């Protein structure tokens, strides 16, 4: 496969091990990475030239060493003279002189071949973690280096909370988060409040809610008691009025009886007067 034109280095890098599986894994890894804090190491600065020979568990074969950078071939390409170099190394070399650094034969940039199979073989070589010096004991295939660095407990990362400038090992993030001034988390009870360590100690929306509920219950009980008292007063007023009405009815009945008696007496008196007057007239005649 001829390399007809210059390929963007970063694009070429991502295709270097040309494995879709690897790309899928790294995209997953970047999500974990963002959750656990940004890596504090600059990846791009380490990507020039080949891989550091010291990184490999077993000393790499001499054939896999780039003559230009003395590192293990990174994205190897073969010139027409069959010499193999890192792609970036030979492209930079050719900017200055268009001859092979090994055999001095002329090198045509358009006749450089990418060695995908060799690249894949190098990708399978076991390496030590770059954080070995910080204590990481892991070894893994070179192709998994990026993925490992996204989860490596010894990776130097930035604290993920906005405003915090702390850089620390990923494994120390949890310990740091317990004291970080910039730590923020929404209330786990779901009240919507965003809490810092300081406000979290005082925040107890559940207790507050219970206190409010108890205060409301007290208010409701007081209202109910007042209503009962009012009802009792109204009941006694109604009973009093009933008694008054009963008395009025009784007195009305008594007055009726008296009136009837008085009428009867008047009638009797009239009858007596009539009888008397009729008796007087007969004795007079
Ligand atoms: Zn090189
Ligand atoms: Zn050569
Ligand atoms: Zn590691
Ligand atoms: Zn912090
Ligand atoms: Zn809350």
What would the keywords be for this entry?
metal-binding, two-stranded antiparallel ribbon, mainly alpha, 285 residues, 9 strands, RING finger protein 151, Znf_TRAF, three-stranded antiparallel beta sheet, binds zinc ion, Herpes Virus-1, rod-shaped, zinc ion binding, 48% helix
- Gross CATH architecture of the domain at 9-177: 2-Layer Sandwich
Given helix and strand content, the structural type is mainly alpha
The CATH topology of the domain at 9-177 turns out to be Herpes Virus-1
Shape: rod-shaped
* Small molecules bound: zinc ion
Name of the CATH class of the domain at 9-177 = Alpha Beta
Rg from Cα: 53 Å
Helix content: 40-55%
SSE string: HHEEHEHEEHEEHEEHH
Q: Compute the number of helices.
A: 8
State the low-pLDDT regions, or none: 1-16, 18-36, 42-46
Q: How much of the polypeptide forms β-strand, as a percent range? A: 5-15%
CATH-level-4 superfamily name of the domain at 9-177: Zinc/RING finger domain, C3HC4 (zinc finger)
Nearest-integer average pLDDT = 84
Largest β sheet strand count, sense and barrel closure: 3 strands, antiparallel
Strand order of the largest sheet: 2-1-3
GO molecular function: zinc ion binding
Zinc finger (TRAF-type): 148-191
Organism: Merluccius polli (Benguela hake)
Domain SIAH-type: 124-182
Descriptive notes:
- By secondary structure, the chain is mainly alpha-helical.
- It has a domain of 169 residues: Herpes Virus-1.
- Helices cover 48% and strands 8% of the residues.
- The chain has eight helices and nine strands.
- The protein has a three-stranded antiparallel beta sheet with strand order 2-1-3. Strands 4-5 form a two-stranded antiparallel sheet.
- A hairpin with a 5-residue loop joins strand 1 and strand 2.
- Helix 2 runs parallel beside helix 5.
- The radius of gyration is 53 Å and the shape is rod-shaped.
- The structure holds zinc ion (ZN) (5 copies).
- One zinc ion binds next to loops.
